[in-house]
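Work Package 4 report. The design task specified in the project plan requires that, given a folded chain encoded as structure tokens, an amino acid be chosen for each position. We show below one input record used in the internal validation round.
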């Protein structure tokens, strides 16, 4: 049974507003499949603070993405705008107000290496 720990956005997870998480690419996340049980915890490894947030199923297979749009800057305007709009939706589905807030969070968390990192998007079924 896959389990995942969170340390931010607890209220948005509990309300069902956040039904996905974005993690650095790892084979661990990529072996999961749609329909697998997923249990979410608040600060899973923190004694005294840990609590179960949800018990759900993956709504789709985890997938790899880039979070920054530099890779399409040399392409046509339409592709750039499509990618930017997709990233805006991704950010909102992850609990951020907008794409800029998401970019800043990932840069703060992972530093400049975030620009070149691949990430895995993990989505689960609504539990509310």
């Amino acid at each position: 049974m896959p389990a995942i720990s969170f340390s931010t956005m607890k209220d948005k997870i509990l309300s069902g507003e956040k039904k996905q998480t974005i993690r650095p690419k790892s084979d661990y996340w990529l072996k999961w499949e749609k329909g697998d049980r997923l249990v979410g915890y608040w600060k899973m490894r923190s004694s005294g603070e840990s609590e179960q947030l949800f018990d759900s199923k993956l709504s789709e297979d985890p997938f790899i993405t880039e979070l920054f749009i530099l890779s399409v800057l040399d392409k046509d305007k339409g592709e750039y705008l499509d990618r930017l709009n997709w990233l805006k939706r991704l950010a909102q589905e992850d609990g951020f107000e907008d794409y800029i807030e998401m970019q800043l969070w990932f840069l703060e968390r992972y530093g400049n290496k975030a620009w070149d990192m691949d990430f895995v998007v993990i989505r689960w079924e609504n539990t509310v």
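The first helix runs from residue 10 to 15. Validation will be extended to a larger panel in the next phase.
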